[in-house]
Design goal:
Strand 3 and strand 4 form a beta hairpin. Helix 1 crosses helix 3. The protein is α+β, with helices and mostly antiparallel strands. The protein has a two-stranded parallel ribbon with strand order 1-2.
């Protein structure tokens, strides 16, 4: 589910809306949880008792964050990393 900020006009029936307050909460939770272990994240998320759309968005952001870290740790196809350089194999 993607969020849309409330800026006026007619709301779309299938879109969950993100107020500035909800966005600030989401951002603060993401910043707090991004570098924690999965177990520690689970405990904190349970403590927060988030509604389903906010929880879904937070879990999506955390998954994307985790995935981007693993991609950047891999060698590019056909290259090997040598210090700070990528050289053809």
């Amino acid at each position: 589910m993607h969020f849309q900020f409330i800026t006026g006009g007619e709301p779309h029936a299938t879109t969950a809306f993100m107020t500035t307050t909800r966005w600030n909460r989401l951002r603060a939770l993401f910043d707090e949880l991004a570098d924690l272990t999965i177990q520690a994240r689970s405990v904190r998320i349970a403590e927060e008792q988030l509604d389903a759309p906010l929880r879904h968005e937070l879990l999506g952001l955390l998954a994307a964050h985790d995935h981007s870290a693993t991609i950047l740790d891999q060698e590019p196809p056909g290259y090997r990393l040598n210090g700070s350089e990528a050289r053809p194999r």
